[in-house]
């Protein structure tokens, strides 16, 4: 990567001896950083196509810029995320008349393609919107601090798992942003509706009507965001609440079942065991 900036540049390049260890260690070979940094003020980042299996991630914390990638030019602003696939050239240039802070990260590993795929499925040619996520900024700072903490095995293994956490979190935010933009309902509102009705049944007709969508489109969009059906999500929520009641109250299993809309305690117990792996009685005793 060729990179220049006016000042306040922080760059961490993982030494070759350490990269060789990361590539083979069972706790790090799946995903590891190759280099990363934080650039302030005027930013210019570019790379030429080269033979490697390294993904390049750019996350704009402040400012505005322009991305040239795959023969397209895009405006980049605060909260925008860029992911460049291996062996592809690109150029990112910040606007000189704005305060700019950009995090950048190069990563590789046996699971790099899988993590990248999770991100790219909700991006358009490597460009996506996640918003200004303080948790992600904090994770970047934690990774950058690796340089000052030293390259001990414990520090590096921790950094690798922070990287996995951060990429997973960004993939989730991409899905949420895409969902909110293309949907007429809020998952938060649906969750609130479910919480308020844990004591009874909620069918797909009611949920879809509340969201002002057809049953088909509501179920499709809900599963796209949560990887499960609306009804199964509601049942999961009921079982989670049952676990809380078993842990924190003296209510009988029958009382807990009735409070969650299940008139048959035996059916509730079978459902609970199917979901949790043990019966409500065993759960309480454990």
UniProtKB/TrEMBL annotation:
UniProt GO molecular function: DNA-binding transcription factor activity; sequence-specific DNA binding
Residue ranges annotated for the HTH araC/xylS-type domain, each copy included: 188-286
UniProt keyword annotation of Transcription present: yes
Keyword Transcription regulation: yes
A Pfam family the protein falls into: AraC_binding
Matches recorded under InterPro entries: AraC-bd, Homeodomain-like_sf, HTH-like, HTH_AraC, HTH_AraC-typ_CS, Tscrpt_reg_AraC-type_HTH
UniProt keyword terms in alphabetical order: Activator, DNA-binding, Transcription, Transcription regulation
UniProt-listed PANTHER family: ARAC-FAMILY TRANSCRIPTIONAL REGULATOR, MMSAB OPERON REGULATORY PROTEIN
Name of protein: MmsAB operon regulatory protein
């Amino acid at each position: 990567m060729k990179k220049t900036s006016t000042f306040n540049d922080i760059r961490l390049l993982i030494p070759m001896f350490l990269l060789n260890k990361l590539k083979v260690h069972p706790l790090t070979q799946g995903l590891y950083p190759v280099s990363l940094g934080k650039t302030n003020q005027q930013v210019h980042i570019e790379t030429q196509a080269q033979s490697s299996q390294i993904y390049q991630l750019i996350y704009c914390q402040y400012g505005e810029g322009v991305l040239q990638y795959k023969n397209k030019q895009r405006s980049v602003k605060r909260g925008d995320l860029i992911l460049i696939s291996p062996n592809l050239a690109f150029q990112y240039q910040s606007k000189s008349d704005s305060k700019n802070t950009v995090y950048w990260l190069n990563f590789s590993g046996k699971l790099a393609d899988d993590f990248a795929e999770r991100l790219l499925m909700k991006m358009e040619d490597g460009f996506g919107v996640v918003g200004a996520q303080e948790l992600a900024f904090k994770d970047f700072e934690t990774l950058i601090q690796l340089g000052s903490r030293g390259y001990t095995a414990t520090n590096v293994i921790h950094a690798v798992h922070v990287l996995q956490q951060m990429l997973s979190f960004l993939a989730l935010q991409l899905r949420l942003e895409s969902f909110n933009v293309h949907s007429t309902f809020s998952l938060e509102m649906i969750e609130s509706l479910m919480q308020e009705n844990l004591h009874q049944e909620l069918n797909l007709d009611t949920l879809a009507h509340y969201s002002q969508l057809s049953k088909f489109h509501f179920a499709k969009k809900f599963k796209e965001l949560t990887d499960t059906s609306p009804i199964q999500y509601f049942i999961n929520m009921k079982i989670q609440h049952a676990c809380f009641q078993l842990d924190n109250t003296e209510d009988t299993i029958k009382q807990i079942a009735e409070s969650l809309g299940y008139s048959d305690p035996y059916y509730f117990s079978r459902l609970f065991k199917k979901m949790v792996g043990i019966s409500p009685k065993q759960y309480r005793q454990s």
